[in-house]
Amino acid sequence: MHVEQSNLINYFSTVSYKVMGVHHHTKGAGCSHTQMSAPFPVFVFPLAGKARFTFNGTPYIISPGTVVHGGANMTLDKLVLGKSRWEYIIVFYEAVTSEPENMRMGDMHFEISTGNSPRLTELLWRLWRAYTHPDTLSVFRSEMLFRCVLEEMFVCAGGRQNCDAKELFGSVSQYIHEHYTDPLSVRELAEQFGVNENRLFYIFSKFAGVGPGDYLNTYRLNRARDMLITSDANVSEIAGSAGYTDPLYFSRMFRKRFGASPSAIRERFRNDGGCSLLRTTG
Questions:
Q1: b/e 253-262 (16+ beta carbons within 10 angstroms → b)
Q2: Per-residue pLDDT tens for 129-186?
Q3: Are residues 153 and 212 in the same domain?
Q4: Is residue 174 part of a domain?
Q5: In this structure, which long-range contacts are made by residues 229-237, counting pairs with CB atoms below 8 Å and at least 24 apart in sequence?
Q6: Would you tell me how many other CB atoms lie within 10 Å of the CB of residue 205?
Q7: Gyration radius of the chain's alpha carbons
Q8: pTM beyond cutoff 0.90
Q9: Residue 248 domain flag
Q10: Are 143 and 238 found together in one domain?
């Protein structure tokens, strides 16, 4: 199940909740168990090893750097993977004010990639100690520390998403550079890299300042300009070589970008060695 981080942040910023349990567990290699999950939603924070938690038939591979959220009263299958012990802290919580209709946490399971965070681990141990060694301030400390845990989790996840987004932009833009002569579309690019079109538009707007369609067109037109000034191919041939099947459409787009027709650009470059072209296009 995919949940946007912005929706999660908004949920935990607006909905009041309380900690219902904090437990530390260690399981041996190969240990498995099937049960119903608790009557409260839960965060599973791995500390060491690797395990597979399956909520209502959906498996999640959990190891340090990945946090999993499970819903309430779900079928839960647990299996420790590999030869190392599996160690984790789980935090149960309950909403005490009304939840948004589309964000009922007791019905939701998902994972969050945080990467390695010593501070998150430290906060989890402090939360566990506050909850398991009660005093007059333990409830207050638990609520405060749980909020700190969530904040660190979202900060780490946001950093990972930015890194992932930059890597995706690099991969898609490189693919465009290598395949711009193919009949590409934004939909095909999104499918090629396993993301939706909105995600692709967001990433290109963030790192290139334009959407993926505009980025593709700009790259094609720049390559077409290069071919115009370095070859004797006619405009139709250059249009096809730059990925345009319609020479008239190519000419319109070219004029819009460079302020002159392909033939005029070629003539201008040959007459003055490209000086006016450089002044026009920067």
A1: bbeebbebeb
A2: 999 988 888 889 899 999 999 999 998 887 776 667 788 899 999 999 999 999 899 9
A3: no
A4: no
A5: 229/265, 229/266, 229/269, 229/270, 229/274, 229/277, 235/262, 235/263
A6: 14
A7: 27
A8: no
A9: yes
A10: no
Residue type, 77: D
The amino acid at 137: L
- Residue 114 and residue 230 share a domain: no
Structural domain contains residue 169? no
Q: What number of CA atoms fall less than 13 Å from residue 235's CA on the CB side? A: 17
Residue with tokens 């079928």: 75
CATH classification at residue 48 = 2.60.120.10
**Cα(104)–Cα(32) distance, rounded to whole angstroms?**
28
Q: In this predicted model, what pLDDT tens digit does every residue of 212-234 receive, in sequence order? A: 999 999 999 999 999 998 888 99
Domain boundary among the residues 133, 162, 191 is at 162
Distance CA 32, CA 48 (A): 17
Same domain, 16 and 55: yes
The pLDDT profile of the chain, 282 residues, written as one tens digit per residue, is 777 888 899 999 999 999 999 999 999 999 999 999 999 999 999 999 999 999 999 999 999 999 999 999 999 999 999 999 999 999 999 999 999 888 999 999 999 988 888 899 999 999 999 999 888 888 898 999 999 999 999 988 877 766 677 888 999 999 999 999 998 999 999 888 877 888 899 889 989 999 999 999 999 999 999 999 888 899 999 999 999 999 999 999 999 999 999 999 888 887 765 554 444 444
Terminal alpha carbon distance of the chain = 47
Q: Which residues span the domain enclosing 97?
A: 5-162
Total domains, the chain: 2
